[in-house]
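Entry:
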Amino acid sequence: MSETSTGKIDVQTGPDYVSATGRTRMNLAVHHIMGAALFAKHAGKIEANHRGEQLGEFFSEITWNVSATIFLSVAAIEAHINEIFLEANVYFSEHDEQEIAKLWERVERYEILYKYQEALQLNDKEKMPKSDTIYQNMDSLIKARNALVHFQPQWHYEEKSHRKIEERLKGKFAPSPFMDSGASFFPNKCMSHSFASWAVHTAMKFADEFNEKSGIMTKSIKFEGLSYKF
């Protein structure tokens, strides 16, 4: 899937509208973020359809959609930076391609956000401050994704790693309306449309921030009335 093409993709999902334009080689960053937006929308529909009800079997479907949103939102961010490095002749044209290829061999296995910082340095730009809210939110989203992918069941009274996720995420979105106060924050209360929507926006805002700082403009994304470059 390396053929280059130019085109536009539009998806109407009720009140949410996702649009992508740009030059691609069948790269998947845009498709991942659009998929994330669709799963977030589905989670919202299920919540709305069962508003005011007690916890029921429908919550499993919410969990599937929210989890898929988290996975795809982070996958979009990882794919985005990978695609940039693998099109060095376009995005790092001032550097020797073999030099970039050697750098890529070194950084490919590193953490996602490290790759973004390396790309900024290559373009002689300042790194993204790790204390910035946009950076911190993306780091928190990645950690939540990792905790879901490598999930380890923990008793409520000894949720050590889950507590760390809670400390990072609590207050950033509305918890599930179907969970009572005694439920654990992660993952139970996190399975909400609000969390899914926050994840999509977090990924988009991070990509936009990076693109603005780096001068790399690849694609344009619209979600819930907001527009970001991706």
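Residues 11-50+57-151+159-214 form one domain.
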